[in-house]
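Troubleshooting log. The previous structure file for this entry was overwritten by mistake, so regenerating from the original sequence record. Sequence copied from the archived sheet and checked twice against the printout by T.R.
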Amino acid sequence: MTNAAQLVVVARDGAVSTVTINRPDRRNALDTATKVALRAALVEVATDPTVRAVVLFGAGSAFCVGQDLAEHAAALKTDAATAFDTVDEHYGPIVAALSTMPKPVIAAVSGACVGAGLGLALACDLRVLSSSAKFGTAFTAIGLTCDSGLSASLVRAVGQSRASELLLLGETFGPDQALAWGISGTVAEPDEVLARAQALAQRLAEGPTQAYAESKALLAAASSSSLGDALAAESTAQHRLGLTCDHQRAVTAFLAKERPTFDGR
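Regenerated output below.
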């Protein structure tokens, strides 16, 4: 059995941190201790300025199968009225940490990625999928609706009609469908998924971190913004980025026909 201190492992390679959900014996099902550890790990890497890209991974044969239903069943028996407090206390903050992190986050998805696990994967900016990955919403199968931001992220990823089908019918899908629907641009062999995601993270870690952060914020707001609001937000972001060392050095390098280097400032 995995002890509580190892439920989420953070490993560092240069400017890249890999955050691993580490309950392989339970297919990385999310019990309270794991959710607390994951929330803390994501806050840690988000606020560390020396971390410039993050990989989210699940140990073993699954990325994440969502809520630990054994724990949930016990919570329902104890007090059904408070059994869903975890949505506000854990799932919301975890997804917010991933989606608003001021640096790129890549999900390395192997095996099952269902329920809240799918929410976590879609909260990341990019995804590298195993050729054997399996996806699903799973919520209606147990009489629930979605959490973990799926009501927003699934629509953005696959469109309103397909999101309705996936949520209401609860059918699973594979990496080929995920690729065709725009959920991912990268599919790898199972034993290559983590390495491919980490290589992509290393590439992004060498890029203009503040520009990535501004781009993430603009894209997140786009679906609920008017054209006027989007233009104003872009203008504000460009003014901020124009003051960064990364931008000013990159312009100089471009004019000198040199390759720019970025340090995230």
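The chain has two domains: 4-205, 209-255. Archived copy saved in two places this time.
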